[in-house]
Structure formats: C-alpha cells, structure tokens
Amino acid sequence: VAPYLRGGGVGQQVVLEGNRLVLTCLAGGSWPLQYRWALNNRNITDWSPQYSLSVPSVKRTDAGLYQCMVRNRMGAVIHRRTEVQVAFLGNFPAEEQRRTVTQGRAAIISPPPLASFPRPVVTWYKDGHKIIPNSRIAITLDNQLVVLATTATDAGRYHVDAVNEMTGENVTSPAIYLSISGKV
C-alpha cells in the first residue's frame, strides 16, 4: 500500500527560543516507510525510518515552514506544512540618546530598535514615573511618544520597558534625554 497520511497535523506552532521542538509525521502504508524533513522547501534530513524531527534548543533561525515527505516502494506523499514561529525578546542597543526640541513645538520620541516576536508591549517612563497619555501626551501604535506643545517641565530622562508577553521576558531601554530649548 502506498503511504498515506494519518491525522491533520498542526498548521502553526510557536516555540520559545531555547526550548525543544518536536514535529511528528503520522503516516501509514506498507512497510518500510521512510521519512524526510524540509524547512522552507530545503531538505534538512536524509531519508530515514525516523517519523519525528527534534530540535533540542530552538534558535530564531529555526523559524519557518516545515514539511515531511513519506515514501515506500509503492509511492510517496507530502505532509501539509507546519509553520513554526520562535518567540524571543532581543536587547536594546546600549547607547543613550539625546534630543532637543524648541519649547512650544511637539516632541516625537521613538523607542530604540528592539527585535522581538511577538511584538512587545511597551511602557514609557519619564524620570522613573510611568507616563499616562492625556490631551497633550500620546503614544502611537508604533510606540512613539508624542508630547504636544512642549514646556520646560517636559525636559528629562525618558526610557521604555518592553515585555514579551509570550516569553515573560522584559528589557529596559537606555535613557533618552530630552532637552527643551528657548521659545520659538
């Protein structure tokens, strides 16, 4: 009997960076069955009787579309793809930033770049106190801090805390110092 697939498989899987990934390819058919695994359409194993693929410690580069192929002397079949995503939180660059804005103008402060999957939840702070948006201060969908009609009291040390809710990790950015120069 030619190989056939058993079970639907998992369409998507999220694995925490550093954890173990195990994918299985359930198939039936006349013995002996041989299996081969591909990642992003490139073979990553040779044909073998091993029906599972194990990655002991997942890295970000292990993310992608996995697929197994099964064959015997009667034919071959390709299993549906499983998308594997790797959850991680990187680090902010180490350098502090300095910005100067003319008093009365808007200050738009972007958080330092941060690699993460999924996208982190970001909280802004000024001089160690959490910033609560109001009619003059907003946080955009891209996590930029917008301060309208700046005054001298807006000068200070800003930073962001970023939390990856999937991994539970958090990182704090280096300081972003905002100075307010004289009136327009």
Overview of the structural elements:
- This protein is mainly beta and 184 residues long.
- The protein has strands at 4-5, 12-16, 21-24, 27-28, 34-39, 42-43, 52-55, 64-72, 75-78, 82-89, 97-103, 107-109, 116-117, 121-126, 129-130, 137-139, 145-147, 156-163, 170-172, 176-183.
- The strands form 5 sheets. Strands 2, 5, 6, 8, 9, 10 and 13 form a 7-stranded mixed beta sheet that branches. Strands 11, 14, 15, 18, 19 and 20 form a 6-stranded mixed beta sheet that branches. The protein has a 3-stranded antiparallel beta sheet with strand order 12-17-16, with no helix packed on it.
- β8 (64-72) and β9 (75-78) form a beta hairpin.
- It is rod-shaped, with a radius of gyration of 25 Å.
- The N and C termini lie far apart (83 Å).
- The relative contact order is 0.19.
Features:
single chain, 184 residues, mainly beta, 6-stranded mixed sheet, 20 strands, 49% strand
Overall mean confidence score, pLDDT: 95
* Helix/strand structural class: mainly beta
Compute the CA-based radius of gyration.
25 Å
| Share of residues in helices | under 10%
Distance between the termini: 83 Å
SSE topology string:
EEEEEEEEEEEEEEEEEEEE
Taken as a percent bin, the fraction of beta residues is over 45%
> Which sheet architecture does the biggest sheet show?
7 strands, mixed
Low-confidence stretches: none
**Oligomeric state of this protein:** single chain
Number of strands: 20
- Label the overall shape: rod-shaped
Annotation field: number of helices: 0
